[in-house]
Structures are given as C-alpha cells and as structure tokens.
Amino acid sequence: MVRKGDHVAKALYGHLATTDQRLVAEIARLRTRVKDLERLVEQLELDRELPLDPLPNVALDEDWVPATV
User: Fold this and answer.
1) 3-state secondary structure at position 9
2) DSSP characters for 11-58?
3) What is the pTM of this model?
4) In this structure, how many other beta carbons lie within 10 angstroms of the beta carbon of residue 24?
5) For residue 7, what is the DSSP state?
6) pLDDT tens for each residue of 46-58
7) 18-30, pLDDT tens digit by residue?
8) Quick one: which of 14, 33, 36, 12 has its CA closest to 23?
9) CA angle 40, 30, 47 (to 5 degrees)
C-alpha cells in the first residue's frame, strides 16, 4: 500500500547523504549529464534564432545541360 507522501520521499532520495559509492557516482554522472543537456538545449535555441546564411550566387556555365532521365 502506497501512503500519501511516499512519492515525495522517493524524489528526495537523491539528495540524501549516502555511503554507497556506486550510488554517489551514478548521481554525479546523472547531474553532469543533465547540465550537458541543458547547455545543448540552450545552444540549439540560440542557433534556431539566428538567421540562415543566404545561398551564394552561383553563375551557371552556359554550356551546362541538365541530365535527362
């Protein structure tokens, strides 16, 4: 039976002091990964706001003939 408030205790579990070094290492790895993903999202949002570079003007050779299929 799940009691009211149990989900909060589980959510706070990562903030508790622990001596299990595997758990400590996993929490540190996950926090680093979250920070990396947050930076990636910021960069993608900035990139999306920048205007695209216009295509360069390319002069076609007058002898150019499109290929026929």
Assistant:
1) helix
2) HHGGGS----HHHHHHHHHHHHHHHHHHHHHHHHHHHHHSPPPPPPP-
3) 0.47
4) 12
5) H
6) 888 877 666 666 6
7) 678 898 899 999 9
8) 14
9) 5
Place of tokens 């150019």: 64
C-alpha 50/C-alpha 43 separation (Å) is 11
d(C-alpha 44, C-alpha 20), whole Å:
36
Question: pLDDT band at residue 5, thresholds of 50, 70 and 90?
Answer: low
Instruction: Give the start-to-end residue ranges of the domains of the chain.
Output: 18-49
Non-local CB neighbours of 27 within 8 Å, separated by 6+ positions: 14
User: What is the predicted pLDDT for the residue at 24?
Assistant: 86
User: What are the Cα distances from residue 30, in Å, to 2, 6, 9?
Assistant: 27, 23, 19
